[in-house]
Amino acid sequence: MDNPVYNYSPILDRPPFKLPNNARVAFYVGVNIEHYEIDKPSMSITPATAHLVPDALNYGWRDYGPRVGVWRMIEALDKVKMRASVLLNSDACERYPQIIKAGLERDWTWIAHGKNNSILQTGMTADEERSYLEDVVSTITKATGKTVKGWMGPALSETFETASIIRDLGLSYVLDWCADDQPFPLNVDGVVSVPYSVEINDGIMFVGKALPGEQFYQMVVDQFDQLYKEGKESARVMALCLHPFIINQPFRQKYLEKALEYITGHDGVWLTTSDEIAEHYINTVKHR
User: Fold this and answer.
1) Which of 48, 136, 207, 257 is most buried, judging by how many CB atoms fall within 10 Å of its CB?
2) DSSP-H helix ranges across 81-235
3) Which tens digit of pLDDT belongs to each residue from 3-23?
4) β-strand pairing of 25-33 with 236-242
5) Does pTM surpass 0.85?
């Protein structure tokens, strides 16, 4: 079937995309704060034990994030005065309140990212999905005191009803469709897609491809340099997509810090959040 979610739009056919202060690149850091159920398989560093219950090897590896890794992430972001755009499982609100507190102190943006990363929407009926999303959004709103504006499904999962449901809940953008370097409208009025990345993403780089830290740094720099060059004519969005149990392992930390220093050291870069990018696009582009 053809894609009913959004229409084809070649980037060269669009009017130039402008950012505040004529920035070339809008840069945000997407930090995944997730909870995993101990008796279900999920992202694993090795499949050898993924079928076991409990899977101490892989569960413990993932659990390093909220226990240790996220605090290194905070140090790295604080050094360059970057706010996180947090992909937040609602189960994390109750289980990791110290992380929520640290984020509120830093004015992080909170994006609804499902109940936990062991449950996907795929296969839910429309009524089941609506109830599920209502619970996720209300839990995050209550825990943070902030209005939730964005959605990203666990494993970037959606149904064909997701955009309509999140619109009804007051959300205005999704991150699931990694199809562009600029925001674009979905075929549900009031909902847009903001760029995310499955390649400039530590899960793919380190778990999927087993790249060394030096290559992570070089790929992030190369991504930025190309977007920065193209952004002179029409601005681009760069998302750096991270999981604290992966990128904030001790032997990788310096490469994250080095990459952040490189990007934030350039003029013409809007250091921002996914919420602000969506709001800017909706206010200045979609309705002009």
Assistant:
1) 136
2) 91-95, 97-105, 126-144, 162-168, 202, 213-230
3) 999 999 999 999 999 999 999
4) parallel
5) yes
